[in-house]
Design goal:
Helices cover 75% and strands 0% of the residues. The protein is an all-alpha fold and 281 residues long. The longest helix has 39 residues. Keywords: Cell membrane, Membrane, Transmembrane, Transmembrane helix, Transport.
Length: 281
């Protein structure tokens, strides 16, 4: 009788320890975001005279009003949304077509071309920054919308790799049945492969949106002024201009964070489904 009780006790202690570690990790991860949101709801006077962890009392939205009324924060928000939408649609389209060709079509040098393309993931962004900037300046695309989006528009090695592996996991019998029914490569992609790949496409859409929404280095290099300023660059400029007014800076970061939180809540089931289906555990 003592052994089963000891085993149950050890099992409960082990489970409790695991949950304690997970809770601690979640707290450490979420704490900066919660602190930023709390700070954005405080007045500058309250932030200066009270501890940082004190709750906002009273809650004020003055920092948010100031962002849109005095600092034209709506323009970077609109520019970031446009850049993200265009890159999402075009990059996903190009990545799907390339991944389908690498996974399901046969042509000379297919595998070699794929691995060479995949090897470009190993090149750090800073190594191509100066040549890419020179190309954009020569093409007259500095400080333009297309100058921001073109470097990431025509596909992503990571997206192509992930989609290729997923497409290769689709049963060959289903694809063969579609071909017997008279479907060509385009119709197989449209009516068979894409409907079965919604989870992984949704996951890549979320990854692409987050990457473009948070992109800082390239927009900072290729643009100047406020006309094509994205959220990250606008927030960094705001921080340098108003270094003492942290309520204004945290209000900007909170606004930038909210759309991503909503996006994750809407797509979390698709993300979990894609992880389980692709075998990444």
């Amino acid at each position: 009788m003592k052994q089963p009780r000891q085993r149950r006790l050890r099992s409960r202690l082990s489970t409790a320890s695991i949950y304690a570690v997970l809770v601690a990790g979640a707290a450490l991860t979420l704490a900066p975001f919660l602190l930023s949101a709390m700070t954005s709801l405080k007045s500058a006077r309250q932030l200066a005279h009270e501890p940082s962890l004190a709750l906002p009392d009273p809650v004020t939205l003055d920092s948010f009003r100031s962002l849109f009324s005095e600092h034209s924060f709506l323009t970077p928000l609109a520019v970031t949304a446009q850049v993200t939408l265009v890159v999402l649609v075009v990059q996903l389209t190009c990545s799907i077509l390339a991944a389908y060709a690498f996974a399901r079509l046969t042509f000379p040098g297919r595998d070699l071309l794929f691995w060479v393309y995949l090897a470009t993931m190993m090149i750090p962004q800073v190594a191509t920054l100066v040549p890419l900037y020179s190309i954009m300046v020569s093409a007259g695309l500095r400080n333009t919308f297309w100058g921001i989006v073109l470097p990431t528009l025509l596909g992503s090695p990571y997206a192509v790799f992930l989609l290729r592996e997923y497409f290769r996991g689709i049963p060959e019998d289903i694809v063969s049945a579609a071909r017997i029914d008279g479907c060509g490569p385009v119709r197989v992609l449209r009516y068979v492969v894409l409907p079965m790949s919604r989870p992984i496409i949704a996951t890549l859409a979320v990854i692409t949106i987050v990457a473009q929404w948070n992109n800082f280095l390239w927009p900072r290099v290729i643009t100047s002024g406020e006309q094509w300023q994205v959220l990250t660059v606008a927030t960094a400029a705001l921080q340098s201009q108003f270094n003492g007014n942290w309520t204004l800076v945290t209000a900007a970061t909170t606004i930038a964070l909210l759309p991503l939180i909503v996006l994750y809540l809407l797509c979390q089931r698709q993300i979990v489904s894609s992880i389980s289906l692709t075998g990444f555990k």
